[in-house]
Design a protein that fits this description.
Shape: globular
Number of strands: 21
Largest sheet: 8 strands, mixed
Number of domains: 3
Oligomer: single chain
Strand order of the largest sheet: 14-13-12-15-16-17-18-19
Helix content: 40-55%
Structural class: alpha/beta
Radius of gyration: 28 Å
CATH class of the largest domain: Alpha Beta
């Protein structure tokens, strides 16, 4: 081969120091590297050239992308699969490619910077030595189960052999993505270095490997690791415990984790060749399943939302370096702590008195403390971020803020008063955002001197964990303010949907009838634990009564009042809830609600609630009808809201429901689930329920229209 670089479709290589071939993967016209059939052919051709070149003694492999190694396989190819046979062939092809890498006669060292996920990590595992940068953007993981599949190019075989079954299952079964520091600690990565020396260290490793040096890898965990990972009996205990945990978490709705567990166990029991074959078979079964299709649709939807500002021709967002938060309670402190942890901005908090401010500052700092405890940040980063947080009982420090988020009590007069005060003490270009859950933004902005600078940013509780943000512009909000709110929400790690300025917006609009129906069922004698248990079995992370305790009955009462006033008797609050607030049973935050709480953790149902609401469990309503009433109330309201344009697209509505309150992802979201059931069937069942329980079940015109013409929310 002539000297100088040899150029192929995605890979280039050149000889360094006359011995090490430096291979660079840079997929043209793509923002990230991903593995496709074309790339596989290119890798095989490059390996053939390197093997045949006598001057090449070792290989050092790098990405040509700035902050991405290999993001994974090309999902577009995956969704084009139509049969299990095609899927099994795709998996087997990937396995053959990486077997070629693993058995390459010359050592391959890989330098990893940026995202190294799915097929990208499987490629790195097949290489002979792994060096990673310690940069925050270097993340490694096998997230395939989140798409309803499993690592199908050898990941279920190589990772357990490298770091042990326990550690590998922890990553594979949860679809975890870990920072480079964690990957180094568990043994996925051999060396962890500063990005500035990644290339040099990887090249040096390749030279040493070529000279006969072999790394000594020692799994962490000592004797315990050997007892559980190092012998068949111990592994049997590991697999049994893992299977129990998976079933407890998935309730059998998601087949991918169990299939991945089987692939790992089969390979360790029968050898890597048999393991690879079983891995491909299981991958094929999952790839064409309805669950995987639904999860892939969610993946594409969330990816598209990362680039969507919710308005046509969006202007560039304004820069936010300083944030003001008014209200140092649970939501305000959550917003403040998350903004610092994720966006790294200066945050100034304000509340009515210093004790409240102090409590809010402590709560915000707990978010940073948790990131330090979980080793997501170093102690030096923790100290730097803590220094960005301050607060007071007045608006001192708000003058330089580009964005102020109000998180005070859900009362129109209170929110309007805060808006007046903020406008008086801040600069004209400020964006004022209300964290209201139900009150229309145009009502809040009625008192504004600059209504075009007012917008809604509805976060969900707890802010640090809940991924959704509803952005609500009024008719007068300027496009630049919308862009700024969406962009800052993304910096906080949120998936943002832009929704219409209407009472309850999207989430509380469709959640309110669901929660109200739970109240009616309670009043009919359905047990609290039965309501929660049935909906958890159906796929929700928690049932409606637990959700009420989490939200807080005082907040729920305010939401119910706004929704009742806006939409009439159809959304009248269930009478069973009225006594809860009066008795001080506000939920988890008060230490008592429908459930008892000990040390902040939920314990048993508080039987005293039944006396309070005036009814005791009688087992009268059939489980199937309980589920039907709760679900159909939500689907009916979702159809109404879509017809009113509350969300711009069914995609936004489904992602909002999944991320906002945990609508079961494997069902695709309320609108996709409605399509699966069929409008005609839903209308028929609602009419039957309306005859029995009253007009709140009357089918919406939107559903009747779809039933009449066979239409769907998704074409």
């Amino acid at each position: 081969m002539p000297p100088g670089p040899a150029v192929r479709a995605a890979l280039t290589w050149e000889l360094a120091d006359g011995a090490v071939a430096v291979v660079t993967f840079d997929l043209q016209n793509e923002s990230v590297n991903k593995i496709s059939r074309t790339v596989k052919d290119d890798v095989l051709a490059t390996l053939a050239a390197l093997e045949g070149d006598r001057a090449v003694q070792a290989v050092a492999f790098f990405s040509g992308k700035r902050d991405n190694f290999i993001a994974g396989a090309d999902i577009e190819e995956f969704v084009r699969l139509t049969t299990a046979a095609e899927a099994e062939r795709l998996s087997a092809d990937g396995q053959e490619l990486l077997e070629r890498v693993a058995r390459f006669p010359k050592p391959i060292a890989v330098g990893i910077h940026g995202a190294c996920l799915g097929g990208g990590l499987e490629f790195a595992l097949a290489c002979h030595y792994r060096v990673a940068s310690d940069h925050a953007k270097t993340q490694l993981g096998l997230p395939e189960v989140q798409l309803g599949i499993l690592p199908g190019a050898g990941g279920c075989q190589r990772l357990p052999r490298l770091i042990g079954a326990r550690a590998a299952l922890d990553i594979i079964l949860a679809g975890k993505v870990e920072p480079a520091q964690k990957a180094f600690r568990v043994g996925i990565v051999d060396e962890l270095v500063h990005p500035a020396i990644l290339r040099d260290v990887t090249l040096d490793a390749a030279r040493r490997l070529a000279g006969g040096w072999r790394p000594r890898r020692k799994r962490p965990g000592g004797v315990v690791a050997w007892l559980l990972d190092g012998n068949p009996l111990g592994r049997r205990v590991v697999f049994r415990a893992a299977r129990k945990q998976v079933l407890r978490q998935t309730r059998g709705h998601y087949p991918a984790p169990l299939a991945a567990l089987e692939a790992v166990e089969h390979g360790l029991r029968h050898g890597i060749r048999a393991g690879l074959k079983r891995e491909a078979q299981l991958f094929a079964q999952l790839a064409v399943s309805d669950v995987s299709r639904k999860l892939v649709q969610i993946f594409f939807a969330t990816t598209a939302l990362k680039k969507d500002f919710g308005i046509p021709n969006p202007p560039a967002p304004g820069e936010v370096r300083r944030l003001g938060v008014v209200g140092a309670g649970f939501m305000g402190s959550g917003i403040a702590g998350t903004a610092i942890a994720q966006a790294g901005v200066d945050v100034r908090m304000k509340d009515a008195d210093l004790p409240r401010v102090a409590k809010g500052l402590a709560a915000a700092r707990e978010i940073l403390d948790d990131r330090l405890k979980r080793r997501r940040i170093t102690k030096y980063e923790h100290a730097r971020l803590v220094a960005l947080l301050s607060g007071g009982a007045d608006y001192a420090g708000f003058g330089g803020a580009e964005l102020v988020i109000e998180a005070v009590f859900e009362d129109l007069a209170v929110k309007q008063q805060v808006l007046r005060e903020v406008e008086e003490t801040t600069r004209p270009g400020l964006v004022f955002a209300s964290n209201t859950s139900t009150i229309p933004i145009h009502r809040i902005a009625e008192v504004a001197a600059r209504p075009e600078r007012v917008i809604g940013m509805h976060f969900f509780s707890p802010v640090a964990r809940m991924p959704l943000l509803e952005v609500i512009p009024s008719a007068r909000t300027s496009p630049g303010v919308v862009s700024t709110a969406v962009a800052f929400g993304r910096r906080m790690g949120k998936t943002a949907i832009v929704v219409k300025d209407s009472p309850g917006f999207w989430i509380n609009r469709i959640l309110t009838p669901y929660m109200n129906e739970a109240g009616y069922l309670l009043a009919e004698g359905v047990a609290i634990e039965e309501l929660d248990g049935l909906m958890a079995e159906w796929g929700f992370p928690v049932g409606p009564i637990t959700l009420l305790d989490e939200v807080g009955m005082d907040v729920a009462e305010k939401v119910a009042g706004v929704m009742h006033a806006a939409f009439g008797e159809r959304l009248a609050p269930a009478p069973a809830f009225a006594a809860m607030v009066k008795s001080g049973r506000l939920g988890r935050k008060a230490g008592k609600g429908f459930y008892k709480y000990a040390g902040g953790k939920k314990a048993a149902v508080d039987a005293g609630v039944y006396d309070l609401i005036g009814v005791h469990p009688n087992g009268g309503t059939r489980p199937a009808e309980i589920i039907q009433r709760l679900v159909l109330m939500m689907l009916n309201e979702a159809a109404r809201a879509v017809a009113e344009g509350i969300v711009r697209t069914p995609r936004d509505g489904d992602i909002g429901a999944i991320f906002g309150f945990g609508f079961p992802p494997f069902r695709g979201g309320p609108l996709r689930h409605a399509d699966d059931l069929g409008a005609a069937r839903i209308v028929g069942e609602l009419e039957r329920l309306a005859e029995r329980y009253g007009p709140r079940f009357a089918p919406s015109e939107a559903l009747r229209d779809r039933a009449a013409d066979g239409g769907k929310f998704y074409p």
